[in-house]
Queue: 2 jobs
Job 1
Amino acid sequence: MAPRVPKVEPVGLDDHMTAALGAVPEPIEVMWNNPEAAKSALEFGAKVGEWDTVEESLKSFAHMAVAAQVGCGWCLDIAYFMAQNLNLDLAKASEVPRWRTSTAFTPLERDVMEYAEAMTTTPTTVTDDLAERLLEELGPAAMVELTAYIGFSNFSTRCNTALGVESQEFSADCEIPLATR
C-alpha cells in the first residue's frame, strides 16, 4: 500500500536518524507535508529518546507491543532494528509480537507488554492490579516515564497507520527474523 498522503522531500531536515538508517524514514517524508507538525513530532520523539529512568529493553518491548497491537509495520520494523543497534537481546525482541505465548520473557517484561497493550486498547483496560505490580517493581518515576513512553508510542503508531506508512524493511538486516503475531 502506498501512503495515503504523498511523500515529499523534507527540505532543511538535519536528521541524524536519516544518516544512521541510510534512508529518509517514510513517516518523515509523509509528515513533511506540514513541516511544523513533522518537526514538532521529531522534537518530541527526540526528547522521549532522552528519558533514562526505564531500562531500554523494557521501553523497546513496550513500543513493539503497541506497534504489533495497532498494526504499525513501520514502527515494529524500526523498533526491532533499533533493538539490534542498542545491543538489546534480539532473541527476546524478535518474540514481542507473540509475547503472550513465548517463554522468553521475565514477569516484569510481560507486565510491561501487558500494560502497553492495556493502554493501547480503547477504552484503556489497565487494571489496578497490573498498575500496582509495575509501580512496586519500577517505582513512581519509572512508572510515569513508561506510561508517557507508551502514550508516545501510540501517537507514532496511530499516525503512521492512519497515513498508510508501512515497513521500510530495516529489520531485514537483523540476524534473527521478527516473529509474526
Job 2
Amino acid sequence: MAQAIEKPVRPFTGKHMLALTLSFFGVIIAVNIGLAYKAITTFPGLEVDDSYVASQTFDQEKSAQEALHWHVRQGYDHAKRQLVLDFTDVNGKPVTLRDISVLVGRPTEAAQDQHPVMQQGADGAYAAALELPLGKWMLQIVGHAQDGTLYQARTFFYVRS
C-alpha cells in the first residue's frame, strides 16, 4: 500500500494575524470613508433652520390649508416634456393662485434640482416646460391662495418611457 506524502504545514504566526487584522479593519475603514463621502456630497440640506419654531405654527397652517378644500392633480408628459399641475376647488373649478413656486428634484440629492416657472393656461391648469430623465422624482409645491393662505405639498412621481 502506498504511503500518502504529507506536506509540511506552515505555522500561523503573528505576522499572519497582523495581516489578517489589518485587512479586516482596512476594509471596514474604507467602506466607512466611502459612505461618509457620499453622505456629505449628496446631502440636499435642511428642511427648516429650527424645527421647534416651525412646529409652533404647523397646526394652524395645516388647518388653513385643509379649509381651502383644494384638489391637486399632477402629471408629467414625457413626450411633450411638460409638467402640469391642475388645482381645483371643492366644486371642481380651476383655482388661480396668487403665487406658486415649484421644486422638482431627485428624492436623495440636490444635484438635479430644477425650479420650473409655472404658467396658468386657458384651462386653468399650471404648466411648465421641463426636461426630466427617467426615474423617481420629488415635487414640492409652495403657493398662496388669493387670500394669502399658504399651500404646501410634497409628492413623488416616476418618469417612465
